[in-house]
């Protein structure tokens, strides 16, 4: 949103060369800040759920159906998820809210919505957030909101699995790291100084970072946009593959 600073937690599969790309889709310019907060790596244990990054997929968009309302919880079908799925990682975006309020995403097996919020909105401007919610391979979750009318967009980015046999190599557990600023276009940290212009992309890698071992399968980053001159969105994805 023009003139606003917005952050979102992003989990991205790591390319073989350790590179990542960020593209600015807006017609204007924007500064980008990236903070590394963790990696998915290491030996899988039977007592832990491992994370499996997937190709990001638009699973449901209420703008092509009907908006969510404050009339009570609604189920959302994300589509089939990999066998052994115990939880799903989603990028959820609230769009066009009729008033301020919140959105709660919770397991479909839970009868009543929990007293928590995943997205808090104060206007009709888009607000995204990373959401991890328990789900089975049938891809069914539930959503509740106190907003009279709001559209929600669900993008599946990965799953957590308790199965060590469905994936080769086995799904790697999550390991948190000390938050580290690895990219900041405002001062040239990790990239050439200057805003990201329209249609341009940033290429950066994490191979030289001590916190990211060579066998890391994915990284968790907090990505912030600041000083955008026009509305738009960023895409973050592994280097070496098409966006």
Characterization of this structure:
The protein is mainly beta and 243 residues long. It contains no helices and 15 strands. It has a 4-stranded antiparallel beta sheet with strand order 1-14-3-12, with no helix packed on it. It has a 4-stranded antiparallel beta sheet with strand order 4-11-6-9, with no helix packed on it. It is globular. The model is unreliable at 43-47 (pLDDT under 50).
Write down the oligomeric state: single chain
Helical stretch count? Answer: 0
Order of helices and strands: EEEEEEEEEEEEEEE
Outline the biggest β-sheet.
4 strands, antiparallel
Q: Share of helix among residues?
A: under 10%
Summing up helix and strand content along with how strands pair, one would put the structural category as mainly beta
Distance between the termini: 22 Å
The average pLDDT is: 87
Content of β-strand: over 45%
Order of neighbouring strands in the sheet with most strands: 1-14-3-12
Query: For the CA atoms, what is the radius of gyration?
Result: 18 Å
Shape estimate: globular
